[in-house]
Amino acid sequence: MKVLFVCTGNVCRSAAAEALLRRYGAAAGFEARSRGTAAQPYYRMPAQVAAFLKAEGADAAAHKACLVTEADIDWADLVLVMEARHEALLADKFPQSMRKMKLFLDYCGAGGDLPDPMGGSDEGYARIMKTVKSCVLELVKKAAK
User: Fold this and answer.
1) I need a labelling partner for 41 at 20 to 30 A (CA). Which of 34, 66, 78, 145 fits?
2) Among 68, 20, 24, 15, CA closest to 46
3) pTM of the entire structure?
């Protein structure tokens, strides 16, 4: 299954979800990409996110922030967005995405938006990264059923 994760800047939530799905879902046949609705190539992954991913054995060292494109939407079997506002932006720009788009937390059974930790405390980053990992593991588990 090809999964596209989308957030705002493509350096925290979506990038972490991509790296973790590559780490935990590769054996189950998952492919992952991540993009942002307002990403810029000069955006860098926060140290807290990079450290979390390194501790998980998930490689994200080469990650570069990228804007979501129509080709990304067409590539994906499933598009998981971090917030309802991402869903609205993609639905407006890429109407074909609606049939395969879900809120990340809704899809994983937790519900609602996943807040952006950018600029927050280390504890905030840790909490969001734990949530991302939990949801990625749930995604892999769902596929195994």
Assistant:
1) 78
2) 15
3) 0.97
